[in-house]
Write a structure and sequence with these properties.
- It is a single chain.
- This protein is mostly beta strands and about 280 residues long.
- The protein folds into two domains: about 50 residues, no CATH class; about 210 residues, Fumarylacetoacetase-like, C-terminal domain (Fumarylacetoacetate hydrolase, domain 2, Alpha-Beta Complex).
- Helix content is about 10%, strand content about 30%.
- The strands form four sheets. It has a nine-stranded mixed beta sheet, covered by helices on one side. A five-stranded mixed beta sheet has the order 7-18-17-14-15, with no helix packed on it.
- The site of zinc ion (ZN) has 6 residues, from loops.
Length: about 280
């Protein structure tokens, strides 16, 4: 299933995409797409619904983040060796973990606001993993049972705040709208191999990132188990798993986001995001 949330910010309703790509209203069955409604039990119930019997949503509503009320938005740094090299950093001996505060989460096509003083806002297409059941001190072999599904994420980053302003990366990773998530939460049963997904990003129509999750340093199962050693992963938590080569910081000369820039971001089977950049006041 491709679950989604549609409608005005803060008033989103749950939906599901049908085989023809139309949004069907799921609100007779669940009140929202959250940690509770993506549990294995809830997904099994939803799978029994005949999607074609649900009301078609008319028009082209705004799409919200594909899961609501996440408690954690965890990111993995330097998880592709080619991106580590372009960043002038070494692949770490263990995964680098940082937080994107959940207040940065937005819809996949929402306008991206860069901070008033930003000179180095940058893009990162990433595979998002959404947790379906509580995971604490789990083994790698059991990790995939805890994954509800996957989504496309743009891990927007202000490089000056992240790297030059000292302290944690969180500073450069959490501005409002720096976390577009979706359009869909694609349930894990529909993603044959999360370690073989083509992911790409276009800036103003030019492809700048073009990678595959097969070249991740630490794969999804390893990451879920690894994170669960340090804190409990809860249903609805989001993990963004790192970006491949092709960010603005790695270009020669470097190229950062400016107002009017357009980004198109996709992962095969997980949907496409479309964003315009403005500067926040
Ligand atoms: Zn990232």
């Amino acid at each position: 299933m491709k679950l989604l949330r549609y409608g005005k910010l803060g008033k989103e309703k749950p939906g599901v995409l049908d085989a023809e790509g139309r949004i069907r209203d799921l609100s007779a069955h669940i009140n929202d797409v959250t940690g509770d409604t993506i549990s294995p039990k809830s997904l099994a119930k939803l799978r029994k619904i005949k999607i074609d019997s649900l009301p078609i949503v008319k028009g082209r509503p705004r799409i919200g983040a594909c899961v609501a009320n996440a408690q954690k938005f965890i990111a993995i740094g330097l998880n592709y060796s080619d991106h580590a090299a372009e960043s002038g950093m070494k692949v770490p001996p263990e995964p680098i973990i940082f937080t994107k505060h959940v207040s940065c989460i937005c819809g996949p096509d929402d306008t991206i606001t860069i901070p008033p003083k930003s000179k180095k806002s940058d893009w990162e297409v990433e595979l998002g993993v959404i947790i379906g059941t509580k995971a604490k001190n789990i083994k790698k072999a059991d990790a995939m049972k805890h994954v509800a599904g996957y989504c496309t994420i743009n891990d927007l980053s202000e490089r000056e705040f992240q790297i030059e302003r000292s302290g944690q990366w969180t500073k450069g990773k959490s501005y409002d709208t720096f976390g577009p998530i979706g359009p869909w939460l694609v349930t894990a049963d529909e993603v044959k191999d999360p370690q073989n997904l083509h992911l790409w990003l276009e800036l103003n129509g030019k492809r700048v990132q073009d990678g595959n999750t097969s070249t991740m340093v630490y794969g999804v199962a390893y990451l879920v188990a690894y994170l669960s050693e340090f804190f409990t992963l809860l249903p609805g938590d989001i993990i963004t798993t790192g970006t491949p080569l092709g960010v603005g910081m790695g270009m020669k000369p470097q190229r950062f986001l400016k107002p009017g820039d357009k980004m198109k971001i996709g992962i095969d089977g997980l949907g496409v995001q479309d964003q315009v950049v403005v500067r926040d006041k």
